[in-house]
Design goal:
Structural class: mainly alpha
Domain Heparan-alpha-glucosaminide N-acetyltransferase catalytic: 24-169
Low-confidence stretches: 1-22
Radius of gyration: 21 Å
Number of domains: 2
Number of strands: 4
Protein name: Putative acyltransferase
Strand order of the largest sheet: 1-4
Distance between the termini: 14 Å
Largest sheet: 2 strands, antiparallel
Transmembrane segments: 68-85, 105-121, 127-147, 154-172, 213-234, 246-265, 277-296, 308-329, 360-382
Organism: Hymenobacter chitinivorans DSM 11115
Keywords: Acyltransferase, Membrane, Transferase, Transmembrane, Transmembrane helix
Strand content: under 5%
Length: 390
């Protein structure tokens, strides 16, 4: 089964010589691995002040290459749920399966909270929302939907979420602030985050709103549902591979076009996770998976894919541990020519900037080296058959 958020466990089984096992999509491992590698690259530049435009998030409205990464991951979570839970859903009672989904979501949410607390340990100011918290919530809701509903009910749920969220953002007045709007600090979602969580528990860069806030988690669930629908299409035994690829391309293209059309009145926006953003990014994700599925699982293309599989089977591990290490390196102060600096900055200005004149290229090199270091760690784990499922 594809790696996905599961109960905390470590598997030490040796990697199979061939990825062609029942119920497994090597293309999904590759897609997940490529997504996590991109996430590490975007999250760990050498210098935050010098980032090539595609690797920087849109300042507010818009969508860059970096903005595709998180929705891709949530889409993959939806596909993985189908491949991991479909047999269990058909085989037995659903109560134990729902409890299993709940436990896994709690573990993921707990890891996110731990990452936010790491080296601070201050519950009064810890950021509660975050990437792992959103993954946990999307996994919980999408897992329950997959177990309890049909694909048609899931599609109607998706439509209701996207239309309803659009109505909330653009028609519902913001209490105490006035008319509905899409401003960073004045939209309905930012107001709800401050009301429920308090400013002390939001993203430290803003303190008044959070890019993984409560209200925007609703359309993020929609991204996961798109993955559920794609996974169920690929699992159909009544369709040959070629029609599956065709239907996935057509559906992805339709979602992409609809997202672009919708963006004319509800702009693409990752921080708000607008309905247009869900369809736009989900459409691209569906077409990407269709291409990978055709090339890798149908045509049997394998050459050069091992690095992506290495990241793909330990995706959450790579993200979680890299977050802890980055936090530690930023906190560890060392003496510099202009006073104490974080160890990460010291390493960058010692190992990269003296040798690469272009600051943007130097920053990119720093991020690529980070990806290579984590590849080395994950490669050793992969060779030893260690897969940590969380």
């Amino acid at each position: 089964m594809p790696s996905l958020p599961t109960a905390a466990a470590v598997s030490t089984a040796a990697p199979a010589a061939s990825p062609e096992r029942p119920g497994r999509l090597m293309s999904l491992d590759v897609f997940r691995g490529l997504t996590v590698m991109a996430m590490l690259l975007v999250n760990n530049p050498g210098d935050w002040g010098h980032i090539y435009a595609p690797l920087a998030h849109a300042e507010w409205h818009g969508c860059t290459l970096a903005d595709l990464i998180f929705p891709f991951f949530l889409f993959i979570v939806g596909v993985s749920i189908v491949y991991a839970l479909d047999s269990a859903r058909r085989a037995g009672p659903r109560g134990p399966l729902l409890r299993r989904i709940g436990r896994r979501a709690v573990v993921l949410f707990g890891l996110g909270l731990f990452a936010s607390l790491f080296l601070d340990w201050d519950l009064g100011t810890v950021r509660i929302p975050g990437v792992l918290a959103r993954i946990a919530l999307v996994f919980l809701v999408c897992g329950a939907l997959f177990v309890q509903t049909t694909w048609r009910q899931q599609a109607w749920t998706l439509a209701a979420l996207l239309v309803g969220y659009n109505v909330l953002l653009q028609l519902v007045p913001v209490p105490g602030l006035g008319a509905a709007n899409l401003g960073p600090e004045t939209n309905l979602g930012a107001w709800l985050d401050r009301l429920v969580l308090g400013e002390a528990h939001l993203w430290k860069e803003s303190k008044t709103w959070d890019p993984e806030g409560l209200l925007s988690t609703l359309p993020a669930v929609g991204t996961g549902i798109l993955g559920l629908l794609a996974g169920q299409l690929l699992r159909l035994k009544t369709l040959a591979p070629a029609p599956k690829v065709a239907w996935l391309f057509v559906a992805g293209g339709a979602a992409l076009v609809l997202g672009i059309v919708w963006s004319t009145w509800l702009p693409l926006n990752k921080a708000l996770w607008t309905s247009s953003f869900v369809l736009y990014t989900g459409g691209i994700a569906a077409m990407t998976l269709a291409a990978f599925y055709w090339l890798i699982d149908v045509q049997g293309y394998r050459r050069g894919l091992t690095p992506f599989v290495v990241f793909g089977v330990n995706a959450i591990t790579a993200f979680f541990l890299s977050s802890l290490l980055a936090r530690a390196l930023n906190r560890w102060q060392v003496a510099g020519p202009d006073g104490a600096v974080g160890l990460k900055d010291w390493l960058y200005h010692t190992l990269f900037t003296p040798f690469i004149a272009n600051p943007y290229l130097a920053s990119l090199a720093g991020g690529l080296v980070c990806v290579l270091i984590w590849f080395g760690v994950l490669w050793l784990m992969y060779r030893r058959g260690i897969i940590i499922k969380v």
